[in-house]
Design brief:
Layout lengths: L1 E5 L4 H12 L6 E5 L8 E4 L2 E4 L3 H7 L3 E4 L3 H13 L3 E4 L15 H4 L9 E3 L3 H17 L1 E10 L6 H12 L29 H13 L5 E8 L6 E9 L5 H9 L4 E3 L11 H4 L5 E8 L6 E8 L3 H17 L4
Parallel strand pairs: 1-2, 1-5, 5-6, 6-7, 8-9, 11-12
Antiparallel strand pairs: 3-4, 8-10, 10-13, 12-13
Helix pairs in contact: 1-10, 5-7, 5-10
Organism: Zhouia amylolytica AD3
EC number: 1.2.1.11
Keywords: Amino-acid biosynthesis, Diaminopimelate biosynthesis, Lysine biosynthesis, Methionine biosynthesis, NADP, Oxidoreductase, Threonine biosynthesis
Length: 328
Amino acid sequence: MKVAVVGATGMVGEVMLRVLEERNFPFTELLLVASERSVGKEMEFKGKTYSIIGLQTAVEAKPDIAIFSAGGDTSLDWAPKFAEVGTTVIDNSSAWRMDPTKKLVVPEINAESLTKEDKIIANPNCSTIQMVLALSPLHKTYGINRVVVSTYQSITGTGVKAVRQLENEYAGVKDEMAYPYPIHRNALPHCDVFEDNGYTKEEMKLTRETKKILDNNINVTATAVRIPVVGGHSEAVNIEFDNDFELGEVRRLLSETPGVTVQDNPDTNTYPMPIYAEGKNDVFVGRIRRDESQPNTLNMWIVADNLRKGAATNAVQIAEYLIANDLI
């Protein structure tokens, strides 16, 4: 099994390599791929030194799987070239997510839709993945009509430039900024660019991707906020169901969902937080309570490491599913 990691030197790419190592991913050959300016540089993986190669060299090597974390433009240009030589591409960017010919996959929810013909597979947005993983069992049981979500998102979702901005602001150093305003001791209601409807691209990803993954009839409205946190994304989610529910049953359904860990005990101050989610692959759910302002409505707090389940882990799980089901 020949595997290429495209964008291996980036923040998600480095986490991807850690996840591959932790999960003992079954490859026989590993290609570490990055932009031309990184070609020839060396990286260590499992005690072995690898030289970074360019995209064209990687295409010519015809890997079985290529996991992309190199940005939308790179994916649009190069994913089809890999697919043409028989490689199955799993793409972390937004480039292919809303393409009606491409599957948008969270393995625990809809991996069974994948076939050998799916040569470009889209990984959902980080904030979407953690939310739909928790929503899925509840939608199957009660039917979701509407979701109102406010996100509190880690600067790591922006990238290394944002991490440097926060570190510089901690130190009182003025340098290049990833955001239009300081992020230290601040909250920016501005994740990604604004669209014509006044929502940001990040907010509309939550709306559009949830519909594609779960059910086109689910209405979603979102507010996405960037906060000075590095461990993961947090979400306050209000869910209106078609049918009533019991809180004990909700907790049971979530506890039995693969990839979800329930942390919900107010008596012991037990609830999810990004400081504890960091470095873990699960989605953590807590603060589970009935919305007392209207019927059939639930509030939850959902937290996950956006670089892991929100990106690298989900992509590796897709690859594992493909191998386990002879789809490569």
